[in-house]
Amino acid sequence: RKVFMKKLSLLSVSVIFLFLSCITAQSQLQIESAFPNLTFQQPVDIQNAGDGSNRIFILEQRGVITVFQNSQNISSKKTFLDISDKVLSGGELGLLGLAFHPDYKNNGYFFVDYTTNNPRRTVISRFKVSGADPDKADRNSEVILLEVNQPYSNHNGGQTSFGPDGYLYISFGDGGSGGDPQNNAQNLSSLLGKILRIDVNKKEGALNYAIPPDNPFKGNSSGYREEIFAFGLRNVWRFSFDSNSKKLWAADVGQNAWEEIDLIEKGGNYGWRCYEGNHAYNTNGCSAVNYIKPIWEYGHNSDGGFSVTGGFVYKGKNASELLGKYIYGDYVSGKIWSLELNGSIVNNKLIFASAGSISTFSEDENKELFFANYANGKIYKFKGTPVTKVGKVDLPLEFQLKQNFPNPFNPGTVISYQLSVAGNVNLKIHDIQGRVVATLVNEEQLAGSYNVSFNSKQTTNYTSLSAGIYFYTLMIPGFTQT
Asked: Long-range contacts: 437-443, Cβ < 8 Å, 24+?
């Protein structure tokens, strides 16, 4: 208590909230080996076919895709596709991305992203599964959709994913070297430093695909590439769609100092090489004023990392602690974080301090989240407090009142809580003398997760609160916590 009061005297914020009336149990969240009997050679992507077969596909950078049943006791795997003789591998080159067609169950199409040589280039191509064996691809079925020359051997991007609109999205790095010397990311005549969007179900002119009619540069007369969906990106290695909100989350690997998380918008300019994260990098010739800033960034230091690996918004049932949060990591530091977005308020929390060389995250058909350790070739998953299902809503098995964020704050913060059943909910703010200064919730609520905003300058009983310690209490029939 004395230590706390000494620290408190140094703070220059208006309000602090603390839990004082009870101590909650520690989270049960942990990491476990998903397939302890299997090891892979430099895994860089994990996918499922979305065909109801409950299979897992692992990409090995050298140019091999393996397949096996999604069972923790599985002890064998099969080679689905081997194009290692075509793939230029090593460093940031190799077989980097895999996406199964939304109608794969019927048409058998899947799409890959790999680098090859003479000249060094990225190839986006389509293959088809064998008609005789669902665990074998037809190697001779390749149809090349797109080829892009790579001026350097690094920054190849590599993510291929179908969006909720049925179009194929592809990430390309800025071409490599350092500092984007060719200014590709801001050059709309180049596909480098971009996220592309194409229609693989149609052909247009000489292309083996079509341009979606609402692509931002469709039909332009300035020579801009019509495939571009967003630009000003350095090297988006991994991106993903939130199937609920339809948001496109992307993690852009930084240059010298900052890693960033972006929400990608159609036609958006994310600032590279003019800006690295929120910070000016090389603004020579940069005249745009509408750069979209990252929603989160972290520095190249012991508290952050050096190469962000994008993740997913968790929707599984094995870890209620992660529900609705964007889970991502860092390849170099091995850290894993959860990020919650509530309006303009971002809550970023370190959940694991060291989880290996995290090369990719991905989901299985049940929305459980996996990640790969590039160094030891193992695949891992998360395990915590299980989630139960009530009606159509996935719910935690227990009530939970969480620490507000940010804390300390001035003047706004967010309080989060979870209800396992419906009931009358009362959430109030008290001062240190026990007086109620604000009632945030007093109503019947359904089971689920809730975020409530509180502004210390707009309270129920006081125009503005003075600096000090305040408490919040959640009251539900059979449950009270402060």
From this structure: 437/461, 437/462, 437/465, 437/470, 440/415, 440/472
Q: What is the DSSP string of 73-126?
A: T----EEEEE-TTT---BTTBSEEEEEE-TTHHHH-EEEEEEEETTTTEEEEEE
Find the angle CA(45)-CA(157)-CA(287) to the nearest 5 degrees.
150
Calpha distance 377→179 (Å, rounded): 31
pLDDT of residue 10: 31
Return the DSSP state at 6.
H
> Which residues, 6+ apart, have CB-to-CB distance to 226 below 8 Å?
211, 215, 217, 218, 219, 220
Containing 4, the helix (H) or strand (E) segment is: helix 2-8
What are the two backbone dihedrals, phi and then psi, of residue 214, each rounded to the nearest 5 degrees? -105, 15
pLDDT (0 to 100) of residue 17: 55
The count of residues in the chain is 482
pLDDT on residue 20: 35
pLDDT at residue 419 in the model? 82
Tracing tokens 């350092």 back to the chain, one arrives at 178
Measured distance CA(305)–CA(303) in Å, rounded: 7
- Quote the longest CA-to-CA distance of the chain: 76
- Cβ burial of 291 (10 Å; 0-12, 13-18, 19+) is middle
* Rg of the Cα atoms in the chain: 24
Report pLDDT for 298. Answer: 98
Please return the burial class of 102, using the count of CB atoms within 10 Å of its CB with bins 0-12, 13-18 and 19+. Answer: middle
Report how far residue 373's alpha carbon sits from residue 42's, in angstroms, rounded to the nearest whole number.
8
CB 347 within 8 A of CB 405: yes
Residue 2 three-state SS: helix
Closest C-alpha among 123, 81, 76, 129 to residue 101:
129
Q: pTM value? A: 0.81
Q: Which residue has the tokens 């999604």?
A: 70
Average pLDDT for runs of 10 along the chain of length 482: 31 41 54 98 98 97 98 97 98 98 98 98 98 97 98 97 98 98 98 98 97 98 98 98 94 98 98 97 91 98 96 94 96 98 90 97 97 98 83 62 85 84 86 88 82 80 80 85 88
- Residues 6 or more apart in contact with residue 145 via CB below 8 angstroms: 111, 124, 125, 126, 198, 200, 207, 208, 209
